[in-house]
Write a structure and sequence with these properties.
4 domains, Rossmann fold, 24 helices, about 600 residues, seven-stranded parallel beta sheet, alpha/beta
């Protein structure tokens, strides 16, 4: 029988899941506290479910939380007593962090792996899977490790629940002084890192000691992760390689570096499909590093990572690290590594690879904290549920399971909702984002709006983004290529018409497209249009988990009710844009 110990908002279950009462007056303070060491699993209206995992506990430990603090928080907020099984598991996994430490070996080519528990060293020496890493046993507490196996060792150890504490230090790399400007070069406005950006830089650098130099900074889109990267560059003062998601993002990084640092144009190189410049600060993409010929497993551009004297490597959108980059990252553990992301969640559960190869989460600031301070825009999130007509219901009913998501995602009834949303936000820049190119092409033609997809040349993308930022394009239709690292400061309304199944990180990134603060103080609006009573609505619930964990609430809107709201006077739109005038004069558009 459960022992009642209070009237708190949570119930801690013996399987390490936590139920939290969303209607409880202490819900918000409790949610913030447990988010530091548990992952949100689902968030229906009244009772949210979190789960404590090994990686969530190791990240908490890396941020300085210990088992006693975590257990105390659970007991403080729990409605019933916390079972001894839960206490044991938390103590066990938190206790695993740092049981093994990697230090400088004092000999070129080797590092020292040590533990205060001789039986752990005995276990590793007796494990045939680890023999390839070990050069020789020094004593019962220490072994010598081949330095080039540093990354693979960390990956292997985390699979048997030994998150390695790596204080072996780094190859300094070629020195190269980088300073931040006190005034922006483009606007001459004063520039300085914000307090949390400075804190993130210091959490990474740790005064240049061996405890610093590797890890992941998690900040909301629009919070200035690029500035954190530049701050880390200024602190380390070494040649730097920056890896990001696409060529547009490469050029945005280069623009920011020119604007906010004292780097000259000849100091910064673009290594992309179009240019192959290698300079003291080089910006490249994951795609070019992964490029290879057909089935050939040779990746010719990997040498950019491995052969140069980089002292710092910055991984933008680090949660996207693909498997080939994981492999090469395992080879460059001697270099300082900074990961930047808005969310560490991965649907393939490879967060442990990010943890072992880039480093633990070293700094995170809740999105709502940034919103309260005005560093990101206040955002309102809506889910608009559209019904299927009889013909679509038939197609959906007889379709194979693998095809059902696409059928409901491209529901033609979504077109009218898009028009209504545009009408509801007159004179606001609107992004329409989706997964399926044929659906996006129809929407673009309907609106008379330009479209950006993976096949759009980089120069054309940049021109369209620039026109959108200037306001000469009131709406822009974009595929998933716009999920990441796109700077659109004035976008205040985004409409998501389809997505990559239940991807939580994609949902967070798409909201991020409208989170940059607006000059006029406008709030941001994020609409997800889904087909009701379908697998798409199920996936939508999962997509929203990370943002719910950050404190965002989705307002559920019935499409019919939304369409019947009083229409905004057409004169507010007419004349502003010919295409908008045309589509807003009609109540119904049939595709």
């Amino acid at each position: 029988m459960l022992e009642t110990c209070g009237s708190g908002p949570i119930i801690v279950q013996s399987d390490l899941s936590i139920l939290i009462d969303a209607a409880h007056p202490r819900f918000e303070e409790c949610r913030v506290k447990i988010s530091a060491f548990a992952e949100l699993i689902k968030s229906p209206e009244y009772m949210h479910t979190y789960r404590i995992t090994p990686v969530s506990l190791w990240n908490a430990a890396a941020l300085g939380m210990n088992a006693e603090e975590i257990i105390a928080a659970l007991r403080h907020y729990s409605r019933f007593s916390v079972s001894e099984n839960v206490v044991h598991e938390i103590n066990y996994y938190c206790g695993r962090y740092g049981l093994l430490t990697l230090e400088s070996g004092g000999t070129d080519g080797f590092l020292k792996l040590n533990s205060k528990d001789r039986f752990i060293i005995m276990e590793l020496c007796g494990n045939s899977d680890f023999s390839k890493f070990i050069h020789k046993k020094i004593d019962e507490f220490n072994v010598l490790i081949k330095a080039e196996m540093r990354g693979e060792l960390k990956r292997a150890l985390i699979k048997i629940n030994y998150p390695l504490r790596d204080i072996a230090g780094y190859v300094e790399g070629a020195p190269f002084e980088i300073n931040l400007r006190t005034n922006s070069a483009s606007s001459n406005a004063p520039f300085a890192l914000r307090d949390y950006q400075n804190a993130a830089c210091e959490a990474f650098y740790r005064s240049g000691g061996a405890e610093g130099g590797s890890g992941v900074v998690v900040l909301a889109c629009g919070a200035g992760k690029t500035c954190v990267g530049m701050g880390a560059m200024a602190k380390t003062g070494v040649k730097t390689l920056i890896i990001t998601t696409n060529t547009v993002a490469v050029r945005q990084w280069i623009s920011e570096l020119k604007d906010k640092t004292d780097l000259k144009e000849e100091d910064i190189g673009e290594y992309s499909g179009e240019k192959k410049q290698i300079r003291p600060v080089t910006v490249t993409t994951y795609q070019i590093l992964m490029w290879h010929r057909g089935n050939d497993d040779h990746y010719p551009h990997f040498c950019v990572l491995t052969d140069k004297e980089w002292g710092l490597i910055i991984y933008d959108e680090v949660h996207l690290l693909p498997a080939p980059i994981f492999r090469v990252t395992a080879q460059i553990q001697a270099k300082r590594r900074l990961g930047l992301t808005a969310t560490l969640v991965r649907e393939d559960r490879l967060e442990c690879d990010v943890f072992s190869l880039i480093g633990p989460k070293i700094y995170e600031l809740p999105w709502k904290n940034l919103e309260k301070k005005g560093h990101i825009a206040k955002a309102n999130c809506y889910e608009v549920r559209v019904k299927m007509n009889d013909a679509l219901k038939y197609d959906y009913a007889v379709a194979k399971k693998a095809h059902k998501h696409r059928i409901c995602a491209v529901n033609h009834e979504k077109a009218n909702i898009i028009l209504k949303i545009i009408e509801t936000h007159p004179k606001e820049p609107v992004l329409i984002i989706g997964q399926y190119l044929d659906q996006l092409d129809i929407i673009a033609k309907m609106l008379g709006a330009p479209i950006i997809t993976g096949s759009t040349p980089s120069s054309e993308r940049q021109a369209l983004y620039a026109d959108f930022k200037k306001g000469s394009i009131p709406a822009l239709v974009v595929s998933k290529v716009a999920n990441f690292a796109i700077d659109l400061p004035d976008a205040s309304c985004a409409v998501q018409v389809s997505g990559a199944y239940g991807s939580r990180q994609e949902e967070a990134q798409r909201l991020g497209r409208v989170l940059r603060p607006k000059k006029d103080g406008r709030e941001a609006h994020f609409y997800t249009v889904v087909t009701a009573d379908s697998v798409e609505s199920d996936f939508s619930m999962h997509r929203q988990l990370y943002l719910t964990e950050q404190g965002y609430k989705y307002y559920i809107l019935d499409a019919a009710e939304f369409m019947n709201r009083k229409r905004i006077c057409h004169e507010k739109i007419n004349g502003e844009n010919e295409n908008f005038s045309a589509v807003c004069k009609s109540d119904k558009i049939v595709l």
